[in-house]
Amino acid sequence: MQVLEVYRPFEIQEIELTEWKQRPVKNNFFELVLVNEGQGTQCINYNHYPYSKGSIFLLPPLKCHSFDIQSPSKFVFLKFTDAIFKNSHRFAIDRNEWFKESAYILSNYNQLPGDIIKSDLDRQHLERLVAIILQESRNGDESISLIVSLMMSVLEILIRNIKKGSFNEVSSTNTDERITKMLTYINDNIHKSEQLKIENLASVFAMSPTYVSEFFRKQINMPLREYIIKAKLKLVEIRLLNSDFTLTQIADDLDFTDVSHLSKTFKKYTGKSIRDFKKDGEYMLLKRAVCKV
After folding, report:
1. Is 216 exposed, middle or buried (0-12, 13-18, 19+ CB in 10 A)?
2. Residue 1 lies in a domain
3. The pTM is what?
4. Minimal CA–CA distance to 155: which of 118, 82, 105, 88?
5. Sign of CA dihedral 130, 134, 139, 142
6. 71 touches 17 (CB < 8 A)
7. Residue 198: which CATH number?
8. Which of 168, 196, 234, 269 is most buried per CB count within 10 Å?
9. Domains of the chain: total
10. CA-wise closest residue to 101 among 221, 290, 238, 241
């Protein structure tokens, strides 16, 4: 096993394995996994998907993933960490922009097995970017700024492909493309309450205001308002565990009336106070399914 030096705001490992051993899991944002050699099966939440050279996956920050290795496999793990949001003064970046881009990926990608890249060209781009990041990571601290820029490009490609994929909330038998577009629109504009009003959604998707709510509930089995609140609270969870944003900043950014409104809403939907949630340090709503070790 070759483990490269750890350089914040990311960790990168290049590992060759003949069998998988569960690794310690922290509440980082996510890991990008590139398979450079070998074949086998990826497992998340007891769902299985074959992998081979060139496969690209996202791993959730939960102990519910593994690889069944059938032939010696060489993996590259690129882990996005929270340090960039807590120590942004060290890097020439926009912390808020980074946070929103990364949080979008974590809160929207499917925690189901499978290659997340939908475009062969994007796969080639990612392979090249990861190869450069690997090479630059060996050069020491002087390469950090360049690596951060490269990782921004990685984020953009991941978001582009996530938007092309399906959402966990949508049944695999659902053939109405409007609901996937609506979910994408909602999650793109989750910080903009005006954009999420029924009247605006009706205009954007050419529906009557009364039909928007009915359509959404029928497709998702959840009221529109509840979905929006839970989508916001997933972002609250991410901020609480991975950033130094204050509760006032979080409430303002996600259009809660005030900190009291945020705290009451959070407890209603998670069953925990914000204080207890931060103490336990474990995602609640962000778990799309029950994860067992």
Report:
1. buried
2. no
3. 0.77
4. 105
5. positive
6. no
7. 1.10.10.60
8. 234
9. 2
10. 238
